[in-house]
Every structure is written in C-alpha cells, then in structure tokens.
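lol forgot to send this yesterday, sorry. struct tokens for the thing we talked abt
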C-alpha cells in the first residue's frame, strides 16, 4: 500500500471549495480561515499511479464558523434551518422547520418530551449584555411546557436559564423579553427546551432576536409602549411609554 495516495477535497455549502495535493498519510487536518458560518463536508479519493477509485468517500456534514449579532430568525427560509441543531435527552419528538409557524415540535406518544433546539453559534463579547426576544405558543388542547437558556458550547443543559419551565395553555403567541450577559468570548447559543407531558403536544417558537452588544451602563429599554391611533380618520398616532430607571446590568440609571 506504499504507492497509494489520497486526494482530499473540501466542499462548502455544497460547492467544491478546494482540492488538496495528494497525501500518503491516513489522517489529515484542515484549518478553515473564513470564520463565517457555513456547512462543510470532505471527500477522499484513492489514487495509485495513474489509476483512481471510481467514486469518492464522502464524510458527514459539519457546521463551522459563527454569526455576529444582531441576529434575527423568523423562519422564512428552510435553508437557514440547517444551521440549527438539537439535542434529544429522552422521550420523543423533534424540532422542525415550519414556514407558517416557525420552529415547531409535533408529537403524539405516551412518553414525555425532553428535546432541545439551538441557534447557530454566535460570537458574543465578554462582559457585554444582549437583549433576547422571541415569541412562543402551544396548543388549544393540551398544555405544554417550554424553557429557554443561553450559554457557551453545545450542551444546552449547562446553559444559563433565561425563561424557566413555563406552562403554555392555548395557541395564542406570547412574547419573551430578557437580557443575557456574556462571560467569555467563546461561541454562544440560545436554546429552546420542549418539556411536555405524554400524549399529543405542540410547541412553537418564532421571531428570535438577539441584539448587538450593549454596554453594562447603557440605559435599559423603555417599557409599556402604547400606540393610540387618532380618531376621525386622521393619519396620526400617539405614542406613550415609561422611561427606564435601570442600566443594562440592573444598576440604577445615572449612578
């Protein structure tokens, strides 16, 4: 086998990006220079002199790189769903893409559900704060439960909880609005945890938004925004809101 050589090619988002010089070793390390989020796979073809194998061995697909906030996902394109990942702890049910609803779990079983879905990796700045928003809903028939957490790495069970186990009754959509503090410069993900009782369930998450980095002493956002349209057909609206009293880190504004 000393004459055998191996030709390795890298594919990015289903297009050939690079073919490397033939090697004789049976291991190979490929360092990706571009940090933008992409889907990769590799192929290997065996060459013996002028003869080459008919066909190539294809490796499984991996996601490398990251996204920079601000980040928004309204699930309008199925192609972006491939960058989301999931972790099934037990039970059944998987998160799926729905152009009509968003990220959705649909399941009917005597087993309860215990499954996560997570955003693509996000490059956050150590010590910065991030506004996290999403809408969520369930079913008119059986109450369900959802948890949201954010953290470093790929294991959502170790993430910091943003929204604790929340019972959802009814299909109408609710809104979550919270703040997350990054404690390192490594990649972070936002995870959604479907924790549902046995039998049928539906959990929907949509309009996921993560803001750009916010300084610790930046003012928190205004609250209680009300919009009142003018009467008698006038093309005018009046806005009222409550000014913030705290900074992003929870300290008193102006202190």
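and heres what i got for the seq, position by position
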């Amino acid at each position: 086998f000393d004459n055998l050589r191996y030709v390795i090619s890298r594919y990015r988002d289903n297009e050939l990006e690079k073919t490397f010089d033939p090697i004789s070793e049976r291991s190979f390390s490929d360092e990706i220079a571009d940090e933008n989020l992409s889907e990769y796979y590799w192929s290997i073809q065996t060459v013996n002199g002028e003869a080459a194998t008919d066909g190539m061995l294809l490796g499984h697909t991996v996601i490398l790189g990251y996204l920079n906030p601000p980040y928004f996902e309204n699930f309008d394109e199925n192609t972006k769903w491939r960058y989301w990942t999931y972790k099934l702890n037990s039970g059944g049910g998987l998160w799926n893409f729905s152009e009509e609803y968003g990220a959705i779990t649909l399941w009917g079983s005597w087993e309860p559900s215990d499954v996560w879905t997570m955003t693509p990796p996000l490059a956050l700045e150590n010590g910065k704060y991030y506004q996290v928003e999403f809408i969520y809903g369930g079913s008119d028939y059986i109450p369900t439960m959802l948890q949201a957490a954010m953290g470093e790495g790929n294991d959502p069970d170790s993430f910091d909880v943003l929204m604790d186990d929340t019972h959802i009754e009814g299909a109408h959509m609710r809104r979550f609005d919270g703040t997350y503090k990054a404690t390192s410069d490594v990649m972070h993900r936002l995870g959604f945890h479907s924790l549902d009782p046995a039998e049928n369930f539906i959990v929907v998450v949509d309009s996921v938004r993560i803001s750009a980095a916010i300084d610790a002493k930046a003012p928190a956002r205004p609250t209680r925004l009300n919009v009142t349209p003018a009467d008698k057909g006038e093309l005018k609206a009046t806005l009222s809101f409550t000014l913030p009293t705290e900074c992003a880190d929870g300290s008193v504004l102006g202190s």
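The two ends are 73 Å apart (CA to CA). anyway ping me if u want another try
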